[in-house]
Fold this sequence. Notes:
Blueprint: E1 8-9, E2 14-16, E3 23-28, H1 30-36, E4 39-43, E5 50-51, E6 56-62, E7 66-70, E8 73-80, H2 82-86, H3 90-93, E9 102-109, H4 116-123
Antiparallel strand pairs: 1-2, 2-3, 3-9, 4-6, 5-8, 6-7, 8-9
Amino acid sequence: MSNPKELRYSKEHEWLSAAADGVSTVGITEHAANALGDVVFVQLPEVGETVTAGETCGELESTKSVSELYAPVTGEVVEANQDVVDDPSLVNSAPFEGGWLFKVRVTAEQDGLMSADEYTEFSGS
């Protein structure tokens, strides 16, 4: 399992891309996707909704359990990935590519976001 070096990671196993024009992409890590098992349902925050760093903003349901989705930053949701709503298995098959979850215009970052190396050590993956 390889965590892309250009991303940052939360202790709740979300990843965050570097902001391009103030907008970052959010997804869950391969480690989290594997732990969840086969994802069968995804509930994402709505476009226009404000998410708050460290607070729940959605839900992922798998054949094993239901897991809350946490916002790694504070900001306004500018896009939700309809592809993962229509085909939740993308979260498992491509967590760092097509399985991204939403894009957010960042207004504040959460303390404690980790580099890829720090996350690998934290998660053991």
